[in-house]
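question for whoever is on the cluster today: can someone run the full assembly for these? four chains, 1040 residues total. i dont have access anymore since they changed the login thing
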Amino acid sequence: MACNCTGGAEKQQQALSTSSPSSASPEDLLVLSSDPLHPANVICELCQLFYDNEWVTGTGGGISIKDGTNVYIAPSGVQKERMKPTDLFVLNYDDSVVLRRPLNFKPSACTPLFFTAYKLQNASACIHTHSQNAVMISLLYSNEFKIANIEQIKAIPKGYEPGYLSYFDTLTIPIIENTAHEEELEVPMHEIIKKYPHTRALIVRRHGIYVWGENIWKAKIYNEAIDYLLGLALKMKQFGIKPDSPIGSEKGQVDPKIYD
Amino acid sequence: MACNCTGGAEKQQQALSTSSPSSASPEDLLVLSSDPLHPANVICELCQLFYDNEWVTGTGGGISIKDGTNVYIAPSGVQKERMKPTDLFVLNYDDSVVLRRPLNFKPSACTPLFFTAYKLQNASACIHTHSQNAVMISLLYSNEFKIANIEQIKAIPKGYEPGYLSYFDTLTIPIIENTAHEEELEVPMHEIIKKYPHTRALIVRRHGIYVWGENIWKAKIYNEAIDYLLGLALKMKQFGIKPDSPIGSEKGQVDPKIYD
Amino acid sequence: MACNCTGGAEKQQQALSTSSPSSASPEDLLVLSSDPLHPANVICELCQLFYDNEWVTGTGGGISIKDGTNVYIAPSGVQKERMKPTDLFVLNYDDSVVLRRPLNFKPSACTPLFFTAYKLQNASACIHTHSQNAVMISLLYSNEFKIANIEQIKAIPKGYEPGYLSYFDTLTIPIIENTAHEEELEVPMHEIIKKYPHTRALIVRRHGIYVWGENIWKAKIYNEAIDYLLGLALKMKQFGIKPDSPIGSEKGQVDPKIYD
Amino acid sequence: MACNCTGGAEKQQQALSTSSPSSASPEDLLVLSSDPLHPANVICELCQLFYDNEWVTGTGGGISIKDGTNVYIAPSGVQKERMKPTDLFVLNYDDSVVLRRPLNFKPSACTPLFFTAYKLQNASACIHTHSQNAVMISLLYSNEFKIANIEQIKAIPKGYEPGYLSYFDTLTIPIIENTAHEEELEVPMHEIIKKYPHTRALIVRRHGIYVWGENIWKAKIYNEAIDYLLGLALKMKQFGIKPDSPIGSEKGQVDPKIYD
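^ ran it for u. tokens below:
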């Protein structure tokens, strides 16, 4: 697993330029900031983290943050761990007009999917990874992934009412079929969200996962917790344990045959 | 696996402010120090390490250090790898009065469990993780995890007398059932410690592990050694080797059928 | 997995010397540059990344960049994560004359293979790793590795025409037998490229993989995407799923018996 | 997996003190140096690396470098990733007199084993880890681990004559039984080296591995290559492939039934 802590000298040059953006264009000012919590900086920091987690290998995956009416989106085909704030697209949320177009990059094919999460789910951030845990789960489940009675479930909101899932609840994540082109996932994503209005995530078969949240930190936490649960479910299956079997009315009742 | 070495610029700002805490409130002075071995700094450093180990994914897990009568506790629902000293709660050990309450955070639900380790076990530090090794082991064992005849066992104290387990001893870690709310684990933890008074750790089924020690470094070492042993036991089981089978009166006697 | 972020102080001394190369020899000027995107700096940065990925453990693997008529090559038997720009060989592309020969190092045995990728495939960068994913795949497939219908395939070019593989295409990577000496792979590599003229990669049985690209970043992206696919295929096989089975005429049709 | 790049502030304080050791005692001057390649600094750098590789979890493992007649040894029971040069013992090679004794630490129980590697094998560095790959292999093989026909074998010296193993050779590593106390391994280590005079490594059952070399970098490379091979062998066994099966007189002949 890679560690990119040294970053590239490019990043340092970028950081320097952000300290004195006096000559920056109005478009560049949308992404240049010395505030580490500015969406453009957060996107770059998280993409490096996701790369280290092997979630955005090659140029896979994508990420977007909606900040007011500005929607920040990582471009298509970029190495996520080497991305700089000036590589980002900025769109207007209301009319999808491109406010900032980076040189040499194309818009992400995930753009309509990010907007779907914003419009239908009132989300303000969306993360898309090619996590191998998500791909493997999509090969082992047909239409839904379910996991129950694992503490980490409590990191995920109920959705249908305020608050989070309890330990005794079941987390359900819908799975949709992949399409030839990423943007073609917009309609299936629209349909599946109508069917699962409370979900915060969507697995795309043989492809990866989309996770969204009320803000980028919520989206990051949901994504980490769900990936933990997907990976745990794979380990459970390797030992012949069903991830969604009920543990019964008595606390902790588990089929004794799985025990040593 | 993530590497967060670059930290956030927030952390650097935090570090700066700790260098000149002249205007800090008395409550903040409880957590602001330029000494890297101050409990508040150690907690933040170790939480980043635990995050990199995938032990506190999302906002999972918790940690506490008792220093004299001050008990430092990471707050509820915080991203462990982004935590700052000023995010910590400080409680008085004797009467549980809150000496410092961070803005925007709730106390950790682990608080009564940390105090149980301090009161019953004379511990001064307690680590709680959602380690997948611990969760998997809790799905494969009923009431106790046992492992014998592995060198790493020697990192764990006997408990019933001074000194550490020998290579020929068996390490036993009790397993308790999970509850709907973390604080409800207080009574079962109390009971299990009465039953296993020499244990330094407690596995919570489908949840994770609690490990404590005489100081934070001992707790860290026990936690690392135990997680190593849990992970090794899972690998042994994948190859059909029982982690707690006796190796006989002759040194190194092992069932020859497991050999190539 | 190792993190080498602290680097060695040697590296910093090296960096200092690159800032004031006034007294450097003409040969050294071929590899000393303050530009982080200079081929000599990129090779060192990527070798550290590959080490962290366990692709070049020990002194395994190799890397080369062709920049105009200069061919930069990591030397034989060097610890990749500790390599400095001054450790590199530089050869002339047209006549293979050595333009720069580092002290105490021998040329890489991969040299003729890198040139084969350049001459036959019009590549400008070539990466060779001892990835365990590649070695394991070479033990499970005879002459070709195939994988189909995985999103990550879209990172790999078609080769026979512009553009990239589609989600519904099959990626095929030829496998050749290993030889006693690395340079003896030149003829088999020549032959297999004639047979698979559109491939960007070549697996060497019980040895590792060669991946090349139009430039170093393309080669890096292809290598990451292919290693992701090799690792995913191993996981699929562990669950009894064939990586190259067709998903049928209907989108997403998968053998239902593999589902839970 | 942990990344400790930020190190601790202690390390930086240590580094500062090494810059101005004017007031240092003669004993401390044995371990204080601004040269990153000084044995005391190399030991600390490598211990952090080994910790990140999960080879010295808790306080497991050990390391020693012989430099002239000075033998540098990490102390007993120290957290390897937090170790400082001033934590090291220095012994005289000829008479084992302790030249430097750190405060608050006990000598490593590995000391007689390190000296055995130096005396019997003419080594100048010895690495001891609790690698789980080594422990697992020790549970699956009786007296010897063997692996053949894997490129990475070529990183290991023949021993019986100059030069390295060829691709068609078999690497053999002896396995000895663990003992109650680490220092009791001295006699078995002595005996096994007499029996396997050309080995560079020794697996201790249910414990870990010792690897030595002509200098620390050779020892590091051998250790990395051997751990790679142990880990690969475990993966091969999971797929039912024997790591030491001959590939026949024809190059690359493999039992076709293992293929897809």
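summary bc i know u wont read the tokens: The first helix of chain A runs from residue 9 to 19. The interface with chain C takes residues 1-6, 8-10, 54, 57-60, 79, 130, 132, 135-136, 139-142, 177-180, 204-208, 234, 237-238, 242 of chain A (CB under 8 Å).
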